[in-house]
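This part of the workshop introduces the protein records we will be handling. Getting from the letters to the tokens is the skill we practise here. The record below serves as our worked example for the rest of this section.

…
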Amino acid sequence: MNRTQLIKCRTCGSSISSEANSCPKCGQPLYAPSRNHVTPNAISQDSKPRSMNGCLVAIIILVVLGILCIVPSVIMQIFIAMEKGDSNRKQNLEKRQSDKKHSTPKPSFQKLKNESEAILKLKENQINIPEADKIIENLRLISKTDRNYKEAQNLLRRLETKTRRKRVEYDAIGLEPNRILMKLRFNIYLRARLNDYYSSEYLHYTDAKKVYVRKQLYWRSVLKLKTKNSFGVYIVKDVKFYFRHSQIVLVEGL
């Protein structure tokens, strides 16, 4: 059996059991709390800052990782946008340079006057309508405030009168086809229609000439063609080709 010892309270001097925690008379604690002793409240209070610090660190890590994932993509988009902008600027610059290179300066009135007078001296069948149209268009651009306006209008009227009949023909049949173009058209047309095209031969063909067929105006060229008939015998034909605007539109004698 354990014996209970009596000790005196250091504050009031009363005799108390050594097993008591405090003096029953004055309430003085008999023993000082141990430095290693931690109350539950202290434990909970100490754990809160630690848990908050852990959450803060985790949030910071997530933010850093998010930035590391987003920043390369953003940088890549910036570089792509910069390259696209450089490409667009280069294309615009090339287009401006091309336009500047191909743009023709506005001719002077003296040049237009000389060209107009040269056309007015030509015979009707010698007039080139596309060239005459360029001069007419530039004369029309001369404003009323220009000191050469009246003279330009006079030249304009004379040119329009001179080219009127030729223009009607040009609108109907176009320019006279040259020999190289006609031969090219013969080749395309006959290759699609002759059974033995590669054994045929062009003996001769005439220059284009204006003719009327059933009151319709055409350019006509007559081709002397050596080719095989259905029996395999060579024959010579005079094939008439009728052109409008450099295209074959009618054929006779094939």
In short: The beta strands are 6-8, 15-17, 201-205, 209-213, 216-228, 234-244, 247-252. Residues 33 and 39 are 11 Å apart (CA to CA). Residues 40-102 form the longest helix (63 residues).
